[in-house]
TrEMBL record, chain A:
GO biological process, one term: carbohydrate transport
Full protein name: Multiple sugar transport system ATP-binding protein
Domain of life of the organism encoding this protein: Bacteria
A Pfam short name: OB_MalK
Keywords: ATP-binding, Nucleotide-binding, Sugar transport, Transport
Protein family per UniProt: Belongs to the ABC transporter superfamily.
Ranges where the ABC transporter domain occurs: 4-234
GO cellular component: ATP-binding cassette (ABC) transporter complex, substrate-binding subunit-containing
GO molecular function, one term: ATP binding
Automatic annotation (TrEMBL), chain B:
Family per record: Belongs to the binding-protein-dependent transport system permease family.
Matches recorded under SUPFAM superfamilies: MetI-like
Membrane topology type: Multi-pass membrane protein
Keyword line: Membrane, Transmembrane, Transmembrane helix, Transport
GO biological process, one term: transmembrane transport
Cell location: Cell membrane
Gene3D superfamilies noted in UniProt: MetI-like
Transmembrane segments: 19-39, 92-110, 122-142, 154-177, 198-219, 261-283
Pfam families xref list: BPD_transp_1 (PF00528)
Assigned GO CC terms: plasma membrane
Name assigned to this protein: Glucose/mannose transport system permease protein
PROSITE patterns: ABC_TM1 (PS50928)
Domain ABC transmembrane type-1 residues, every copy: 86-278
Length: 370, 293
């Protein structure tokens, strides 16, 4: 039993099922991020936890109490909305204490709670202002203050950073993480931004088409994606997924991949069970940062493969240079050091860290588990 | 407005500009003329009017016609002036406007934030109220008022005007609340506010502009209504418009035009006042949400 249990939960609108048997158990103090493209059902799931949407079947429990049919205000949750949803006619202070007032907390206690939260979020000087007179970042803080003041069991965040500009977004991201570390609260956070998901979470649920595709720690999701969708959704630039054929070189299973000119190269697998796939087609997944020049290859890796391929495009990004080549008939991106000597049209010796490579079944698109 | 935007793309000459303002001024004068005639003649002794020269300024200024129209002119059988009928109108208009506006706001709130199956159809049906001509409902309404015992009373008139007004007020508030962020309602729900608390504390305080629109519209329509007042009011609940008609139409004795003018202005004054006080909100309210603020 977790702190927050989502137990075999389904959501339908009429005959259309939009969430299929979701099973997630969140421990106390965990930071769970629901991530996925628009329409994947992540916001619907969050609204169901909040009580703003009905649960069609299954159960949602907070602290072992069944929440189906319980009014949002009685679940001891707090929610931060994408648009912040600050009451425009009330001052910041009134916004923060409105929930306490509705729950019948006496005024002196409300004032005290408001002061504490304002201090924590450094918004004391804003308490008498109306939301209309605040900047985006300030509104964001007030919205969090309104959630914090009630000291809820679970915090729900619905894409809280997507209305901020890029720089502020990064700052607030750090801010939220600090807050979580300081207060140790249980958080469920919805975003479509995979970087937010990776940086903030203790666990991620990647959702697509109403299914939880994978539930795991950021590292698990990144290194061992359950299927091609998760592999390409998480990480930027996305993981390269290349058609390849498995062959044997002595005892060693290798992936045979077509180079730009139609000739092939063989990349040896680290996973022995790939021998079972001898002679069959697979999809080979390689992260951009695992394709480098030889000098930059991971020294701790026991399996660095060499291949010479032609560079199509180079994109210097300051810290790195992204190199595009053709591999297995597809555009493949490599992430090189910025000082690597790469020129478009030249043949270049690449080093591929095959320890980090993953293989997918082309029919089911599921990862072939070693 | 910035200085740059006052410049026109193609240079409009000084002459053209003067011409435009001249024409506008002319039209303004033309439309002000009736008001001028009414005001000027309401402060003249009767012999100055009957002697011709309706357009002349008064030679002997007098407020007597106003006093007479207000408190002693013959209306129907009693020489009461318009005064009691003015209060009749107030007693009818204030509750009718208040009730229809509050109900319209509640309807708008439910139709946008507590949606249910068939709500659009219901809203469509309510809109019909805006298109039904008054004459059609006269007889059924009279029968209804008789059945519920409100015939010939002020409250009967209030009921009729509320029923007729709900269509408009619902339309106004529904469209206003349709663009009101639903996330605010959800946030308030999580904060523990109930149905009416959300309405009073969150929605209504933000409804100023549209409430003004609704109040002006309802006030003007109900105050100016003649047909319902003439049809359903009893002797002691007749509104101002009916009394004014009785004053002007009375066929005994001399026609006191100056008193009639004064009475007509008195009858029009409240709506004029409402519009002057709240008029700028009217345009603002009608335009609300049409452009990004």
């Amino acid at each position: 039993m977790g702190f927050l249990d989502i137990d075999n939960t389904t959501k339908s609108y009429g005959a259309v099922e939009v969430l299929h048997n979701v099973d997630i158990s969140v421990e106390e103090g965990e930071f769970l991020v629901l991530v996925g493209p628009s329409g994947c059902g992540k916001s619907t799931l969050l609204n169901m936890i909040a009580g703003l949407e009905d649960i069609t079947s299954g159960e949602i429990r907070i602290k072992d109490k069944v929440m189906n049919g319980v009014h949002p205000s009685k679940r001891n949750i707090a929610m931060v909305f994408q648009s912040y949803a600050l009451y425009p006619n009330m001052t910041v202070g009134q916004n923060i204490t409105f929930g306490l007032e509705m729950h019948g907390t006496p005024k002196p206690e409300r004032e005290k709670a408001m002061k504490n939260v304002a201090e924590l979020l450094q918004i004391e000087q804003l308490l008498d202002r109306k939301p209309g007179a605040l900047s985006g970042g300030q509104r964001q803080r007030v919205a969090m203050g309104r959630a914090l003041v009630r000291n809820p069991d679970v915090f729900l965040f619905d894409e809280p950073l997507s209305n901020l500009d890029a720089k502020l977004r990064v700052d607030m991201r750090t801010e939220i993480k600090k807050l979580h570390q300081k207060l140790g609260t249980t958080i469920v956070y919805v975003t479509h931004d995979q970087i937010e998901a990776m940086t903030l979470s203790t666990r991620i649920a990647v959702m697509y088409g109403g299914y939880v595709q994978q539930l795991g720690t950021p590292q698990e999701i990144y290194d061992s994606p359950a299927n091609i969708f998760v592999a390409t959704f998480m990480g930027s630039p996305a993981m390269n997924v290349i058609p390849a054929r498995v062959a044997m070189e002595g005892e060693r299973p290798v992936a045979i991949v077509a180079l730009h000119d139609g000739s092939t190269t063989s990349l040896p697998f680290s996973q022995d069970n790939m021998a079972d796939w001898n002679g069959r087609d697979i999809m080979l997944g390689i992260r951009p940062e695992t394709i480098t020049d030889e000098d930059a290859a991971d020294r701790n890796s026991a399996n660095i493969a060499q291949m010479t391929n032609r560079i199509v495009v180079t994109e210097p990004a300051g810290s790195d240079t992204f190199v595009t080549m053709t591999l297995g008939g597809k555009d493949v991106i490599a992430r090189m050091r910025s000082d690597a000597d790469v020129r478009p049209g030249a043949d270049f010796p690449f080093a591929v860290n095959m320890e980090k490579a993953v293989a997918f079944d082309p029919k089911t698109e599921m990862r072939i588990v070693p | 407005m910035s200085v740059a935007s006052q410049d026109t793309a193609i240079r409009t000459g000084r002459v053209t500009r003067t011409l435009i303002y001249l024409v506008l001024l002319l039209f303004a004068l033309f439309y002000m003329l009736p008001l001028y005639v009414m005001v000027v003649n309401s402060v003249k002794p009767l012999n100055e009017i009957t002697g011709g020269g309706m357009m002349n300024l008064p030679q002997a200024f007098t407020l007597e016609p106003w006093a007479k129209a207000w408190s002693s002119a013959q209306i129907g059988v009693d020489p009461t002036g318009l005064q009691p009928y003015f209060w009749n109108s107030i007693k009818m208009v204030v509750p009718a406007v208040a009730i229809s506006t509050v109900l319209g706001a509640l309807n708008g709130y439910v139709l946008t934030k507590w949606r249910f199956k068939g709500d659009t159809i219901l809203f469509g049906l309510m809109l019909f109220a805006c298109f039904i001509p008054f004459q059609i409902v006269l007889i059924p309404m009279a029968r209804m008022l008789g059945l519920i015992g409100l015939a010939g009373t002020t409250w009967g008139l209030v009921l009729v005007h509320v029923v007729y007004g709900i269509g408009f007020t619902t339309l106004y508030f529904r469209n206003y609340y349709a663009v009101f962020p639903t996330e605010l309602v959800r946030a308030a729900q999580i904060d523990g506010a109930g149905f009416f608390q959300i309405f009073w504390r969150i929605l209504l305080p933000s409804s100023g502009p549209i409430a003004v629109v609704s109040i002006i519209w309802q006030f003007t329509n109900i105050w100016n209504d003649f047909l319902f007042g003439a049809s359903f009011a009893g002797a002691d609940s007749q509104p101002m418009t009916v009394a004014l008609n009785n004053l002007v139409q009375s066929s005994t004795g001399v026609k006191e035009y100056n008193v009639h003018f004064a009475g007509a202005i008195l009858a029009a004054l409240p709506t004029l006042l409402v519009y002057i006080v709240a008029g700028r909100y009217f345009v603002r309210g009608l335009m609300a949400g049409s452009v990004k603020g």
